[in-house]
Amino acid sequence: MQQLGLKSPVRLKKYRSYRGNMGLAAENILQRQFKAEAPCEKWVTDITEFRAGGQKLYLSPILDLFNGEIVAWGNGLQAYRGAGEADVK
């Protein structure tokens, strides 16, 4: 190939955001019922990763499904479950 001036395409590795042992899936308590009848009845959370200043940052808001209000949030340089719990307690 080198003598003929041919080059093969370089394939990049697939992106994987998590490189550890995967834990068990959480129980599906809400059963896709994302409407609440009263405040503080159902809270949900997730972890969002983004880059800022050349490093990864993580944001974990806790959302009240009654009115869509963010009741607490946590942030940091590492992702971990319960990031917003400290703000709730």
What would a concise description of this structure say?
It contains one helix and four strands; from the N terminus they run ββββα.
The helix tally amounts to 1
Share in β-strands: 25-35%
Quaternary structure: single chain
Separation of the first and last Cα atoms: 65 Å
On the 0-100 scale, what is the average pLDDT? 85
* Protein structure class: mainly beta
Q: How is the biggest beta sheet arranged?
A: 4 strands, antiparallel
What shape does the CA trace take?
elongated
- How are helices and strands ordered from N to C? EEEEH
Question: Which key features would you list for this structure?
Answer:
89 residues, mainly beta, four-stranded antiparallel beta sheet, 4 strands, Transposase, Transposase_IS3/IS150/IS904, RNaseH-like_sf
Walk me through this protein's architecture.
The structure is a single chain. Helix content is 4%, strand content 28%. It has 89 residues and is mainly β. Strands 1, 2, 3 and 4 form a 4-stranded antiparallel beta sheet that branches. Strand 2 and strand 3 form a beta hairpin. The mean pLDDT is 85.
Q: Layout of SSEs?
A:
Layout: E1 43-45, E2 48-52, E3 55-64, E4 70-76, H1 85-88
Antiparallel strand pairs: 1-3, 2-3, 3-4
